[in-house]
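Attaching the record inline, Q. Sequence:
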Amino acid sequence: MSCDNEIVLTRSITMATLEAFRCVLDDARTPEIIRHHIIDALQYALRNYGQVFTAKEVEWLTAWDDPRIPLAARKERDKRDPVAAAR
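Structure, as predicted:
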């Protein structure tokens, strides 16, 4: 929050959110339905609103162990850098 009590969003909040999702997914106590909701939401966000993720976040998501997230992240990365996608 800023000094005038308005919420000020920064790019670091997104990475913190992704890291929180990763912690929830890695927790053995997390129910499968919650895991699926997180994965589905991230996949949807990458496919439809990929521009809100930084390059660092997209690169980090390409290394996730669920195949749906890295696939969507690679597609977003390739949209941003078509030269690298051609290699």
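The two ends are 43 Å apart (CA to CA). The chain is about 70% helix and 0% strand.

More tomorrow.
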